[in-house]
Amino acid sequence: MDLQTLALHAGYNKDAQGTMAVPIYQTTAYEFRDVEHAANLFALKELGNIYTRLNNPTTEVFEKRFASLEGGEAALATASGMSAIFFALVNAAEAGDNIVCAKQLYGGSLTQTAHTLKRFGIEARFFDVHNMIELESLIDEKTKVIFFESLTNPSIDVADIEAITAIANAHNILTVVDNTVATPILCRPFEWGADITVHSASKYTTGQGLAIGGIVVERKELNEKLKNNPRYLHFNEPDASYHGLIYTDTGLPAFTLRARLALLRDLGAALSPFNAWLFIQGMEHLSLRMREHSRNALILAEFLESHPKVKKVNYPGLKSNTNFDNAQKYFTDGLCSGLLSFEVSTLEEAEKIVNATKLYSLVVNIGDSKSIITHPASTTHQQLSHEELVACGVPEGLIRISVGLESAKDLIADIAQALDA
Fold it and tell me: What is the pLDDT of residues 34-69, one digit of tens each?
């Protein structure tokens, strides 16, 4: 089925009442038929609801529907996009291991990988998303993940997914792709060899800034890569915390299963059923919104490119952009989402422009139906040095815009008066 059809129907068989809308199962726990039923659920002899920290019927619809959109096998919903990234990385790596990450990552992902994971004994090494030689040089026998974004935030680079995954597969290493900005509507990394995708559902999935949540999606047949892979012994040896379960022997999607039974169980970053329901509502019109976001963004990018005060526009839909060819290859119909950034000469000038806008909201979020403007160097990437800002594609004069669904004419008029103020 087409993505728009899946977004409306996948993962939900109407309940006994024939409810058209997916119900919200706002419950903590579930009654078992008897002791044997409870024991079978905990032993995975039967599959079903145990406790909402592990699973919930509303959340399950969200997981199945999102996995279907992404073309994946299974998914795990989490309390935020950052917890989704954390779960994906620590599900593969442990103390003494390393992960290889793109330099062009969202600021929160940079601090999580470079600083927080370091305290867990996991080293992060960084490569330029366009430099495959640098990527290859960072890999060794303790590398467990290559982590990058399909469309980077806020530098707006398009990764060569096929080239990166080819290197990963040559070394039998898992790839984790943050596909938040593109969404499955515009980019499907599994079709280009990726193993895991992660998303902040707080962005385009909800579309109105209504809820915080994340999701981890596993590609089909990933078990074949994990099975007997010496890099991932913890998927192939008995888990003492779960009565000796060997994840790759269950016949279930092992990566998602372990993330649910070991990480979600113990760390507890569970998604609220109500938020899962909100994400389901957003998914129903996600494909329509992504096309309109992309259309508005291209129109605005073309205007900015023509303005004398703008040094550079980062939007891969522009033919002049160095990422244009990758965008045409990896993104549906060449549509490039609603995220763009542009550079002006100085930090002071950037701050003046941001403050002068009226229609745009100064907010550190993206993917809202309303347009958002941000100065990353003073907010999301404030913790980075001048050199680190330049290295990750976020110079001090950079302004990021999450282009909303307003009239493109009005969006241009507001940014024009801010530039000329």
Answer: 999 988 888 888 889 889 999 999 999 999 999 999
Q: Is the pTM of this model over 0.90?
A: yes
Q: In the chain, what are the domain boundaries?
A: 3-281, 287-420
Asked if CATH classification 3.40.640.10 holds for the domain at 3-281, the reply, yes or no, is yes
Domains 3-281 and 287-420 share a fold: no
Give the amino acid at 92: A
CA angle 253, 255, 259 (to 5 degrees): 115
* CA atoms within 13 Å, Cβ hemisphere of 325: 3
Q: Which run of H or E residues covers position 155?
A: none
Q: What's the distance, CA 301 to chain centroid?
A: 24
- Distances in Å between the Cα of 314 and the Cα atoms of 23, 28, 322, 359, 401 are 41, 45, 9, 21, 10
Residue pair 161/176 in contact by the 8 Å Cβ criterion: no
Mean pLDDT of the chain: 94
Non-local (6+) Cβ contacts of 348 within 8 A are: none
If we measure between CA atoms, which residue out of 170, 176, 188, 172 comes closest to residue 330? 188
| CATH class (in words) of the domain with range 287-420 | alpha beta
Kindly report, residue by residue over 278-315, the tens digit of the pLDDT.
Answer: 999 999 999 999 999 999 999 999 999 999 999 999 99
Considering only residues 75 and 32, tell me which one the structure prediction assigns the higher pLDDT.
75
CB of 303 closer than 8 Å to CB of 412: yes
Q: For 375-392, how does the pLDDT look when each residue is reduced to its tens digit (9 = 90+)?
A: 988 776 666 666 776 666
